[in-house]
């Protein structure tokens, strides 16, 4: 055999699986479709969840594996695989140490979202992330591992019910690597437009993906070909909402970004209000809210607010402030603005096709293709609630009920459902061995990270860092298991 195990995909779960298998004595090849390793686990994730880590114990965080287990099981209405959930939680603290020993250090930080401040700290944020990933890769190579970039896993080859190899495609050729074990770690299917269309509950054109584009469901397809289940709870990692330009994918405007992260008046595709907009302070729930509203909404501003924000700040918080601006440890500002160039910024959004401006609410309705009566009624009702200072419709915190939409011109900015990727699909046990639909182990086939089902239910839990922790810990568990049973 060329290798004891071939790992498909060098992102968070694949690197973890490959490193743990190699350090436990297996001869490992790690395949990566792109010319760089890391996947969303490197370009995207800033950290990961753990319970019972050294730092958590030192700080006296009162959060045990039991607490975490119950929190997750309650969140998913007990539809998580209990043994798998327990296995991930049990491994999580040691994984933080192991990553550190291998050069990828983290620090326990305050939870990144404002509404999670009273939750015990669980988020271990990467320090020196990109160099850290390189050090981990160096350790994999030093442990005898082989990294093959620009090499995609294509097909698992079996004889009887035994894995005997994997067909791979490189830049120049298609060839077979012989092995008895394959770990599918290629990150789900968010890069596959057809499958996203098939599984999303919204028009996929309305879904903005921040996920790994090279993750097109190769592993889940290979899994099905060897008798595995590849459609077990396919879930989108809904996360916040994004204003984007259909003209240029790279367009970004800081002012518009901040305005999106506020609980102003939001209107759905029917021209109606649809939520307590302070849901903006929980990214997963905000993401779910947009998803259930059909994939997009508009936030509304009037000229009075625009004029105000040009010179003044609002006593609110930008929901992303804690995540992006405080990485250097500066204190929260608890204010938004002033935005000196707000009018040019809004005009930029209009030019990019993401923003709309009209002298009256009814004209604005025509532009965003909703019923003028519906929009006008919604705005009147909202202004009435603002006057009362209380949101008796959706119970947004009263402290946000002070910005009416009264003075034209009026602006509407479109925010779209956003996903970090997909989770789930592959049916596996707590050792991350692939299972058939009647729950029999498929020898030699393992599924980890975003490819694996079992932890998440119908949405991405709000517990910070859980998705990446699932990737690192599922990979590590599978890698150890393969090495032991090779
Ligand atoms: C912007 C962003 C921010 C995020 N932030 C966080 C966070 O802070 N905390 C958190 O918990 N989670 C976060 N996540 C989610 C986290 O990144 C994922 O849970 C994790 O990366 C999943 O790991 P994975 O190994 O399954 O996939 P990935 O890390 O995406 O790795 C998959 C790899 O497989 C490769 N590949 C695909 N097909 C093949 C093939 N056929 N052959 C070989 N290689 C292949 C891909 O190129 C890629 O390198 C974030 C995600 C994004 C997009």
UniProtKB/TrEMBL annotation:
Span of domain FAD-dependent oxidoreductase 2 FAD-binding: 4-461
Cofactor needs: FAD
GO molecular function: oxidoreductase activity
Pfam family, one: FAD_binding_2
Enzyme nomenclature, EC number: 1.3.5.4
Domain of life: Bacteria
Entry keyword set: FAD, Flavoprotein, Oxidoreductase
Cross-referenced PANTHER family: 3-OXOSTEROID 1-DEHYDROGENASE, FUMARATE REDUCTASE
Protein known as: Fumarate reductase flavoprotein subunit
Species name: Lactobacillus colini
């Amino acid at each position: 055999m060329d290798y004891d195990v071939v790992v498909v995909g060098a992102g968070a779960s694949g690197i973890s699986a490959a490193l743990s298998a190699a350090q436990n004595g297996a001869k490992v090849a790690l395949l990566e479709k792109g010319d760089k390793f890391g996947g969303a686990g490197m370009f995207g994730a800033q950290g990961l969840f753990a319970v019972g880590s050294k730092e958590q114990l030192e700080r006296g965080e009162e959060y045990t594996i039991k607490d975490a287990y119950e929190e997750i099981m309650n969140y998913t209405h007990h539809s998580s695989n209990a043994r798998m959930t327990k296995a991930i939680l049990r491994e999580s603290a040691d994984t933080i140490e192991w990553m550190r020993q291998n050069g990828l250090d983290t620090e326990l930080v305050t939870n990144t979202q404002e509404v999670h401040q009273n939750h015990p700290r669980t988020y271990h944020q990467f320090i020196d992330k990109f160099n850290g990933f390189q050090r981990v890769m160096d350790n994999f190579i030093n442990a005898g591992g082989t990294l093959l970039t620009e090499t995609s896993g294509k097909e698992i080859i079996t004889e009887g019910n035994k894995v005997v190899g994997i067909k791979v495609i490189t830049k120049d050729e298609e060839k077979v690597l012989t092995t008895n074990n394959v770990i599918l770690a290629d990150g789900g299917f968010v890069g596959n437009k057809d499958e996203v269309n098939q599984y999303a509950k919204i028009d996929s054109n309305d879904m903005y993906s921040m996920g790994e584009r090279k993750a097109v469901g190769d592993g889940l397809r290979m899994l099905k070909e060897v008798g595995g289940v590849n459609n077990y709870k396919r879930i989108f990692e809904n996360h916040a909402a994004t204003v984007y330009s259909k003209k240029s994918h790279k367009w970004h405007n800081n002012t518009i970004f901040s305005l999106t992260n506020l609980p102003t008046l939001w209107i759905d595709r029917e021209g109606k209000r649809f939520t307590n907009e302070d849901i903006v302070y929980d990214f997963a729930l905000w993401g779910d809210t947009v998803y259930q509203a059909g994939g997009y909404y508009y936030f509304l501003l009037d000229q009075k607010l625009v004029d105000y924000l040009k010179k003044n700040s609002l006593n609110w918080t930008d929901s992303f402030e804690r995540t992006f601006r405080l990485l250097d440890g500066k204190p929260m500002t608890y204010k938004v603005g002033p935005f000196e160039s707000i009018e040019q910024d809004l005009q930029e959004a209009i030019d990019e096709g993401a923003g709309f401006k009209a002298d009256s609410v009814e004209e604005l309705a025509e532009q965003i293709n909703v019923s003028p009566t519906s929009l006008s009624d919604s705005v009147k009702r909202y202004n009435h609630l603002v006057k009362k200072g209380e949101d008796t419709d959706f119970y947004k915190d009263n402290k946000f009920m002070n910005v009416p939409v009264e003075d034209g011109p009026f602006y509407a900015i479109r925010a779209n459902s956003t996903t970090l990727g997909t989770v789930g699909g592959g049916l596996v046990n707590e050792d991350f061995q692939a299972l058939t639909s009647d729950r029999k182990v498929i020898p030699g086939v393992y599924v980890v990270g975003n490819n694996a089902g079992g932890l998440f239910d119908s949405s991405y839990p709000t517990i910070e860092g859980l998705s990446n922790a699932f990737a690192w810990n599922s990979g590590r568990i599978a890698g150890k298991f393969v090495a032991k049973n090779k």
